[in-house]
Amino acid sequence: MFDPRTVFPARRVSALLSAAALSVLSALTAVQAEENTTSTVAETAKADSSSAADRAFKAVYDKDWAFRLQQFPELAASLGDQDAERRFSDWSDAAVQTRIDFLKQIQRELKQINPDQLTGDGRVNYRIFADQTRNSLADYELGGYLMPFTSDTQFWADYARSGDYVQCQPAANCERYLDRLEQLPQLFQQLTALMRKGLKKGLSVPQVVLTGRDASIALHVVDSAEQSAFYAPFKQLPSALDEASQTALRARAASVIQDKVIPAYRELLQFMRSEYMPKARKTIAASKLPNGNAYYAAEIFEYTTLDASPDSIHQTGLAEVARIRAEMDAIRQQVNFAGDLKAFLQFLRTDPQFYPKTGHELLAEASYFAKKIDGKLPQYFGTLPRQPYGVAPVPADIAPTYTTGRYSGSNDPKQAGFYWVNTSLLDQRPLWAIPALTLHEAVPGHHLQNALASEQGEQPLFRRYSYLSAYGEGWGLYSERLGVEMGIYETPYQQFGRLVYEMWRAARLVVDTGMHAKGWSRDQALNFMRDNTALSEHEITTEIDRYISWPGQALAYKLGELKIRELRAKAEAALGQKFDLRAFHDHVLALGSVPLSVLEQEVDRWIASQQTPQA
Which of 65, 255, 420, 496 is the most buried (most CB within 10 A)? Predict the structure, then answer.
């Protein structure tokens, strides 16, 4: 899973304001700046042949990008603006209203442009940009921004890792870091005000998923600054700094953390325990929120890029669940398991042979499959990224309530991307799931996809740093299936693990729409997952709580994968012996992140180009 909320600053506050999330958009180096300059020169060279509509559209999205950088200093900092590293985004009522007014103006200006008159990639860019604007405005107008965290991602936990990305060489880096930390109390007060407003309007994270979330705040209410995670950059300062400079930096850090940061966490903890958690809504359905049906429809559109009804998605999910169950049962028979499928699922959940004894064993298994896949990539992809990736554990402070694995990317060529594997609760982390997880989160899934996207230097920045879940997570799930062709799965149990993961994504279509639109209870959703997946009890609970607090996002995986598979089958049928799988994959990934309807249009064009005899 890759967090799409990191790439468009008006969406969920929790990830947008976190340093961990901003690692996805970490500072560009001079090399990348040169690439951007080259791209700009190329665009200028094309200007004479562009249409009036092209020029008008470029003026709109350039103005919008400048506004984003001004409104969201975290984004600007991630793109190399050092002055912006000193500031947080403003989440006051006045700032929010400024953004709403600006987005409405952008929409009015877009309506004055006829996309049919755009040339080159202009129509694709227009669609992506218009959808970004629509999604962001809907989040403000329907109140999503008043729920600035989920059961899966919390801004306070993310900020606590901000020191991991700071190096005090030169010392000015840490001075800017401390300048920003001095403003943390104001930021937390603004976010608390948003949550209070949400409580009054009936817009809160559901109470049922809040149990234990306060613990990740309490971790940072420590006795001394030196015990704080925020102090990490100052424990081992560069030897190039003289002793006096080191002493001064540590003194300032201790003062800022002791006087600003720790009290901010203490106040937030008090608010969560005494006010937010007791008053949070008792319902779980998005449809029960104010304007709930419109809110859920907006979430479905954002994450799937489709104007699909909850009922149609629910029925697709049920059909996929039935198909995958039949394939699962075939493997049960293949390994001569005596019981029925339900008993086989329980066997896979509980038998010690399937579980690692140590975190190192789990990471070693993930690393083995990562390297095995690496060796196969050239047979299936013509273009591979320059950036490498590593395998690392999920940070310990969030691991107990975190998902099984995730990709954490970086656009800084001095940093690798990372495939995170959750090494907590080892009796809940089956080894048979590791091949599919690795294919999805590392390669040819999210790392390959996102590293290639970040190297698409000619795309407008709003598109280059865009992430659409249906495309991105659909590709991740497609990658799991591609692993069969690549020969990655070595045992029937690992093949079953792939089906478990596919079933997991199919079941999401059922439980997400069930809970948010069809009146399902949390227990009903939990039981559906227990009956149809081999996920552990902890994983099932964690996942259901994630769907409750993050409506619509989980729908993206299966719907996106189905579309990519459909388009590949279409290309294979149309091209026959001319079909080149490597070329198909390269074309799909070269698009970056696009809506599913745009993906279909672009694949259709690619098919036509392959059918045309070469001169």
Answer: 496
